[in-house]
Design brief:
Elements (H helix, E strand, L loop, with lengths): L2 H14 L3 H22 L9 H19 L3 H19 L13 H12 L1
Length: 117
C-alpha cells in the first residue's frame, strides 16, 4: 500500500471507531496512555506510543486497519502509532483540544481528510 492509502485506511478506521477519533483518544486515556495523548495535543514534542499498548486499547480498530492493509495487527499497530500522533497534532493547532472536548475532533478529522485529497 502507498503512504496515502495507509493514511486513508487509518483515518477511515478512526472515523468508524465508536465515538470517532475522540473515542479513540478516550480509550487510550482509559488504558493509561493519557500522557502520550496529551503530548500530541500540546504544543510540545509528540511522545511515542507503544504498539502493544495501542493494540490492547483499540483492538478492533487495529484489526480493521490490519485487514485493510493486508498486514499483521502488530504491524498495523506500529503504523497507527506513528501516524496517529501526527493526525492529532494537526487537529489541535496551538496545543488545545476543541471547545467541545475530544469528541469535537470528529468534524475536524473529516475536514483534514478532505484537505489531504
Amino acid at each position: 500500500m502507498s503512504r496515502p492509502e495507509v493514511r486513508d485506511a487509518i483515518v477511515n478506521a478512526l472515523e468508524e471507531h465508536p465515538g470517532g477519533i475522540g473515542g479513540v483518544l478516550q480509550n487510550l486515556e482509559k488504558a493509561g496512555l493519557g500522557k502520550e495523548v496529551r503530548s500530541w495535543i500540546s504544543s510540545g514534542p509528540n511522545q511515542k506510543i507503544d504498539p502493544k499498548a495501542l493494540q490492547d486499547a483499540l483492538g478492533g480498530t487495529v484489526g480493521k486497519v490490519a485487514a485493510k492493509m493486508g498486514v499483521s495487527t502488530e504491524e498495523a499497530a506500529g503504523t497507527i502509532g506513528s501516524i496517529l500522533p501526527q493526525i492529532v497534532d494537526r487537529l489541535t493547532p496551538g496545543g488545545k483540544a476543541p471547545a467541545g472536548g475530544l469528541g469535537g475532533l470528529g468534524p475536524m478529522l473529516k475536514s483534514l481528510k478532505d484537505k489531504l485529497h
